[in-house]
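Q: Convert this sequence to structure tokens.
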Amino acid sequence: MSLGCPAKIRLSNTSTKLKITMLQFNHNHTVEPPKLKYYSRNRRLDNNTIEIIKKYDNHKVPRSIIRNIIMSENQSKLTTIKDISNILDKTTINNLPSQATAIEKILNEMKILDSTATIDVTISGNNQLEMIYIATTQMQENFKKYYHIIFFDVTYRINIEGFCLYVFLIQDGRGIGMWQGEYTTMHTFSQYNMR
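A:
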């Protein structure tokens, strides 16, 4: 009620029914049908449009362009980039087994390409991914030579599950920074002990 609009509906619960106790329809601003297009319930997309969005996303089309395509096909319906993101996020969340398979495949490919790399994966008791630590052979050799970590950074919520990405940098004898390792976890540093 940032406009201080007095319009309201008040209900009371009598445990079996909802009873309307107050109706006030007097607004202190204009109520125009064109503004209804901004309500999320009026921006819902049908199944055909959702499939089109998924198809474009599979081809790596930027979400802003997807939004423009959808709006050009249906000019009466407002669609935001956030609407597109919400649809694609729901699709990804419903597809978690394939994400786990994809992660496992990538880690196995890394291990084949660099057989002495350190790749640690921790799974919780309820079969949830807890942590991934990766240090290639080159990273390990650099750390043996220049063993002082000079920079430690974190990026929060890098994926749908809210994982954090920690990066460790070392500095060689010439003052050039080198990536020493990466650590991805569900927990923030203060919640989880890192090795």
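The chain is about 30% helix and 25% strand.
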